[in-house]
Design the sequence.
């Protein structure tokens, strides 16, 4: 029967040091005065290079930064980095953290303060894990973007534009800022598809989306609700200014859309129903007024903008009041 021998003799110590030296982990030991007392090959390559001293933590850090070694310092201010780091080196008996190096590698570091005040640090290379993490994060972002995007127009799809409207209404309620929305419908779109084919209809939708992207501000949103219908969200915008934005889009649509594969060039118009959000609006109530206004624009001859009013009675009896007009 064999026994485990805990005493470290010279041979055991030599074997231990050899193992640490050849290990892919970065191992270092600093004494109570923060002088480096041991560094294995990996740590040496990370921080020291051809450095010949002095071997204090601060001096090693300065040398590494000057020579393109060591950890990445975001603000490039090595003295500020040292000033932040020194008080924390012995603030906890043991801590673990990840850090990235100038050369792009990442290490997970176990930092242990020994009873005599010495500090043992063991760093494991986690670069492959970080790269996998980045790939997964990017894949997630791509999938999320795809789930929010209409494939034909590259605009937000119905689900996402309604989420954006819900957020805009919440912001409007919290800040009291103005918010306008518009339902927009391409006029006689079925006739375009019937006469020229779906490829021509697709070209019209893509042209309309491109015109909107070119004319809207960064904080405005437009998304495809389905078919030829779109929802426009205009934060911090009055009714008058919102009507002007829609008119700018209308002017852009005067340039005909050209289908692919030799299909004919098509001109088209759209109708818009505009509404200003009220304090107690939710998505349903705001869209209802914009939808009624869109219906009125269609009923009155298309290729125009109408405004939805606050109450059904006002809309039913005074559809042209309130400074709405047609654009």
Sequence:
């Amino acid at each position: 029967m064999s026994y485990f021998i805990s005493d470290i003799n010279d041979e055991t110590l030599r074997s231990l040091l050899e193992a640490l030296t050849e290990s892919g982990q970065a191992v270092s030991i600093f004494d109570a005065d923060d002088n480096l007392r041991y560094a294995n090959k990996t740590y040496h390559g990370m921080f020291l290079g051809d450095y010949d001293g002095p071997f204090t933590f601060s001096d090693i850090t300065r040398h590494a930064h000057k020579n393109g070694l060591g950890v990445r310092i975001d603000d490039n201010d090595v003295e500020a980095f040292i000033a932040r780091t020194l008080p924390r080196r012995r603030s906890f008996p043991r801590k673990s953290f990840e850090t990235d190096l100038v050369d792009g590698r990442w290490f997970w570091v176990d930092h242990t303060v020994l009873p005599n005040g010495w500090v043992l640090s063991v760093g494991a290379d986690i670069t492959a894990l970080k790269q996998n993490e980045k790939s997964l994060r990017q894949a997630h972002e791509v999938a999320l973007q795809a789930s929010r995007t209409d494939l034909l127009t590259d605009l937000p799809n119905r689900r996402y534009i309604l989420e954006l409207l819900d957020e805009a209404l919440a912001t409007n309620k919290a800040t009291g800022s103005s918010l306008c929305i518009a339902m927009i419908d391409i006029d006689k779109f079925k006739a375009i598809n019937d006469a020229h084919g779906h490829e021509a209809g697709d070209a019209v939708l893509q042209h309309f989306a491109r015109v909107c992207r070119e004319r809207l501000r960064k904080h405005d949103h437009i998304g495809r609700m389905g078919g030829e219908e779109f929802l426009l969200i205009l934060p911090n915008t009055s009714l008058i200014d919102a009507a002007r934005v829609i008119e700018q889009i209308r002017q852009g649509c005067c340039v005909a859309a050209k289908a692919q594969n030799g299909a004919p060039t098509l001109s088209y118009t759209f109708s818009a129903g505009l509404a200003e959000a009220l304090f107690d609006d939710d998505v349903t109530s705001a869209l209802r007024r914009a939808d009624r206004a869109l219906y009125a624009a269609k009923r009155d001859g298309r290729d125009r903008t109408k405004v939805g009013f606050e109450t059904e009675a006002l809309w039913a009896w005074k559809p042209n009041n309130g400074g709405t007009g047609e654009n």
Summary: The first strand starts at residue 26 and ends at 30. Residues 312-327 have pLDDT under 50 and may be disordered. The chain has eleven helices and twelve strands. The first helix runs from residue 10 to 22.
